[in-house]
Specification:
Arc Repressor Mutant, subunit A, three-stranded antiparallel beta sheet, 55% helix, globular, mainly alpha, 5 helices, homodimer, DNA-binding
Chain lengths: 107, 107
DNA sequence: AATAGTATTACGTCTGTCGTAGTATGTAAG
DNA sequence: CTTACATACTACGACAGACGTAATACTATT
């Protein structure tokens, strides 16, 4: 299991990645993170939803309500162009970060 | 340049790595991080010194005073066995983290 | 009727980083 | 000689992100 301390800098990037292809909502994103990471990273609900509001405040995503007939109403999120640009920046930063961290890792 | 947000989970690991071979002190560690990262990561002084006290509190390092004849007195830090074990854990976690993050990075 | 799964929000706490500033000494430039 | 720069560390308060806990609300299964 991965601790939140080491991945916290990438929560926003992970969320944006999952919104690249289509809008989605909290619960779904949460499941996708769990599945794509093979259960190695399970994001806390409060962390996820607070990330959504931060990303929206920064203009990287926009929100809208789904039209579910049954169940609790979902809040969907769609990535913006700014979000896409920010995501790309973070990907480039990841390459650098990886190089730097690996200089301090002894196998 | 790497933002502190993305590397913050590795500050302790980086510091412990630099103490593996020999005791060292704040200013030196700071320079080594800057050099080994090729100026891509410059740790803030306050971040570094607060990391020292956290690591010492957790038993991962111990401190002692150097016997400099001139200049301001240095506080040296030596890694403990617990620190070595913790460092190794973090290295293993890094491998996992890298795998997970890369699933969310589009090149 | 009870339980589990889906789906979100509110509130307060904690930790790590950062900005700013101050203390203290040695050395090189002008 | 005094100014600036590099060395070396500490104090204090602010802030952001993650977390624990709990509440709300609906559906499906047993």
């Amino acid at each position: 299991m991965i601790s939140s301390d080491v991945i916290r800098g990438y929560n926003d990037t992970i969320i944006l990645y999952l919104l690249l292809n289509a809008p989605s909502y909290g619960y779904e994103i949460s499941k996708q993170i769990r599945e794509l990471s093979k259960e190695r990273y399970i994001i806390k609900e409060t962390t996820l939803y607070s990330a959504f509001s931060r990303l929206e405040k920064n203009g990287y995503i926009t929100s809208f309500y789904g039209d579910e007939t049954g169940g609790k109403r979902r809040t969907y999120y769609r990535i913006t162009q700014e979000g896409i640009d920010y995501y790309k920046e973070k990907c480039e930063e990841w390459v650098l970060t990886k190089e730097v961290v690996e200089r301090f890792i002894r196998d």
